[in-house]
Amino acid sequence: MRRAYFKFSWIAAALLAPQLLIIFVFFYWPSAQALYWAFTLEQPWGGGNTWVGFDNFRKVLSDPYYWGSVRVSVIYALATTVLAMGMALTLAIFVDRQLAGYKAYRVAIIWPYAVAAPAVGLAFQFVFNPGAGIFSYINTIAPGWWDLSKYPWQAVTAIVVAGAWKQVAYSFVFFLAALQSIPRSLTEAAAMDGARPLRRMLDLQLPLLTPTFFFLLVINITDSFTDSFGIVDTLTGGGPFRATDLMVYKIYSDGFRGFDYSGAAAQSIILMLLVMALTFVQFRYVEKRVHYT
Amino acid sequence: MIERTPILNLATHAILVFGLILILVPIWLAFVGATLTLQEVNSAPIELWPGDQLWANLKEAWALSDFGQKFLNTLIVATGVVVGKITLACITAFALVFFNFRGRMLIFWMIFITLMLPLEVRIVPTYAVAANALTPFQTIMDWTGISWLINAVSGIEVSLEWNLLNSYTGLILPLVATATGTFLYRQFFLTIPDELVEAARMDGAGPLRFLWDVLIPLSKTNIAALATIMFVYAWNQYLWPLLVVTDRANYGMVVVQLSDLVPDQLTTGGGTPTWHLAMAATLVVMLPPIAIVILMQRWFVRGLINTDK
Asked: What is the pLDDT of residues B20-46, one digit of tens each?
């Protein structure tokens, strides 16, 4: 950090206090509370919590529904990330050629970022609806074949498509920015050496995108673990038969519908560790941004 | 690059148009759905071209969901988050960068760590805190014996209570409690040349005057970038308002209202699903943030890239 200019005084303390107070009350306290709940069990008739050690974790980890939730979360995370990043990368590389209509293409790809997750969920529920949407075509040919509320794999496909649709814009912005930060001199040198546009894409642009690629990989996976609630809640409601019961959704339904605070807290801790591990990987190995100039 | 690549150019356009179609189709279908009547929207070969019921559907959906009050609430919350976040980010980063004191790095890391765990992950305990935002202090006072001391000396039973459920404060504060903008500001403050600070001090400016008269005018682009990102973030909040607000009539936010419009057995009671109203409401709800992103595109992109969300 740079050298400071002003001596510490009440002014600095007053400037720091609001932020520290807010993160203490709304970040550190709840996180500590989650830890406390995860290792204790509330008495059914009041009288405080008793220490139960790792019992809550044992219960959660031996619950087949929990592993089902982990499984579908991992599938969701990987599938949305691959789909969204693949699409974003393709579009960014071709938008970056800056042909006519470049600005229009760019806006048209960026704006879905602003659509709220529940709105995405609702719109896709309409699209995928067996009775009213575009998928009702399928049912006119093979009646009863397509129904999100009956077939688990169809429900999972639906949330993956909706989730990927929502993520494309974010990755696109980063890929495009990274492509545009490649110095012109490099591109020109490659062109002088006789590399045609497609050759430059493969041998110049893609390798230079590697840091951005890994950065986005981690961010996308983290986001799909934490940011999926809105889509699941409006698109499938966790069903059918818990097939789309993603981890955050399960924490919510166990904690606020089942009133099992200890179980929900144990799940929160596991998810926290997972997200922290991913963030750690990102800072440790990925954050080394590359500058070309 | 001056190259003639007619075939590749054609292929480029083809790929981009195909991508755009993939992106636009769901929203186009939702839009078409919002322009049809109840019968049309539920008829099996689906319409691909808009009908003439858009205005009527919008009006009906608006009245059904009581969107007037909810748009106002959402606007208040989004503005609160934007202003709160920018103010906090600015003053915290200023204190961290320009003041010299012991524990500077410690505080920096304490704030930095909040980036790691999004609200969704710690939702249950955060909700418990929102039910009484003074619980932390109460507990600390009970543990350390201060409550007992106060009780013994003055006879007053200490019970602090500040319920944040069903209030704008409760909606806003937890969303402000991360370090997103602080780092954007810190990066910016680190680029301020030494000469500028020395010149300001030479002219007799104290830290606050320096912040107000020099740094804030310089950070206008920062403010624009952060404001765009935060507005979209706050407007689109779903899980938190869903929990904190039970009094939907007075404090409901528009995005949460969408969950009530999902046409299933619960909302229609086994009747024909009202897709046309659900889609009309969806359009209305997603319009303001989209408008912001398109109008403020430059700052939005800059904010997105610099804050890492």
From this structure: 888 888 888 888 888 877 777 777 667
Average pLDDT over residues B280-286: 88
pLDDT confidence of residue A172: 93
Residue of B nearest to A9 (CA): B99
In chain A, the residue whose alpha carbon lies closest to the alpha carbon of B280 is A123
Chosen for mutation from B5, B10, B16, B96 (greatest number of chain A CBs closer than 10 Å) is B16
Instruction: Pick the residue of B121, B163, B244, B279 with the most A CBs within 10 A to test the interface with A by mutation.
Output: B121
Grouped pLDDT means (10 residues each) for chain A, 293 residues? 69 89 89 85 66 82 88 92 94 87 87 89 84 70 74 88 92 91 87 85 87 86 85 82 84 83 86 85 62 41
Tens digit of pLDDT for each residue in B194-213? 888 888 888 888 888 888 88
Query: Residue B201: which of B189, B193, B209 has the closest Cα?
Result: B209
pLDDT confidence of residue B309: 46
Length of chain B in terms of residues written: 309
List the 102-161 stretch of A: residues with Cβ below 8 A of B.
105, 107-119, 122-127, 129, 131-134, 136-137, 139-140
Please name the residue of chain A whose CA is at the shortest distance from the CA of residue B175: A26
Q: What pairs with residue A50 in β-bridges?
A: A41
Q: What does each C-alpha distance from A136 to A148, A232, B49, B97, B290 come to in angstroms?
A: 11, 21, 16, 59, 29
Are the C-beta atoms of B300 and B225 separated by less than 8 Å? yes
- Supply φ then ψ for residue A130, to 5 degrees: -70, -20
Q: Which residue is closest to B104 within chain A, CA to CA?
A: A1
Cα–Cα nearest to A94, from B211, B13, B157, B309: B13
Q: What is B67-307's CATH number?
A: 1.10.3720.10
Residue among A5, A126, A137 minimizing CB distance to B201? A5
CB contact B238 to A (< 8 Å) = yes
Check: complex ipTM more than 0.90: no
Q: What is the Cβ-side half-sphere exposure of residue B198, based on CA atoms within 13 angstroms?
A: 4
E strand intervals along chain A:
6-7, 40-42, 49-51
Asked if the C-beta of B122 comes within 8 angstroms of chain A's C-beta atoms, the answer is: yes
- Sorted by where each begins, the domain ranges of chain B are 67-307
Q: Which H/E stretch holds residue B100?
A: strand B99-100
Check: CB of residue A139 under 8 Å from CB of residue A159: no
Nearest to A272 among B33, B117, B177 (CB): B117
Residue-by-residue DSSP string for B208-222:
HHHIIIIIHHHTHHH
Does the pLDDT value for residue B105 go beyond 60? yes
How near does any CA of chain B get to the CA of A286, in Å? 13
Q: Can you give the pLDDT at residue A58?
A: 86
* pLDDT computed for residue B79 by the predictor: 94
A2·B278 Cβ contact <8 A? no
Task: Find all residues with CB under 8 Å of B178, minimum gap 6, and list them.
Answer: A23, A27, B114, B115, B118, B119
Percentage of residues in chain B having pLDDT higher than 70: 94
**Domains (range + CATH), chain A:** 32-286 (1.10.3720.10)
